[in-house]
Amino acid sequence: MNWYLEVLKKYAVFNGRARRREYWMFVLINVIVALVLTFIDSQIGLLGESGYGVLGGIYSLAILVPSIAVSVRRLHDTDRSGMWYLITFIPFGGLFLLYFCVQESHAGMNQYGANPKAA
Question: pTM for the full model?
């Protein structure tokens, strides 16, 4: 839970680096929260025909900026520019982002700062 809260504390911080653990724990907790909110939406009748609920939609909007910020910091950790995030707007571009986020951190210092794993 600390990894999730750490990302929320850095709500709109797009500089620096994010470890794999920080990124993937944030993703995991987001998936769990989304499943719980979808269940709650369906139980209280707020789930629309499209499968999206009111509570899930509000949560998605609230978490949008931190999700992009941690993705950019994760790209920085693999020594890539945050502009690589824009690749998600092309078909199958999300697979490239997934590939980049799974990779090992760039060892030592890079142009985005010190390796957070070493700290």
Answer: 0.89
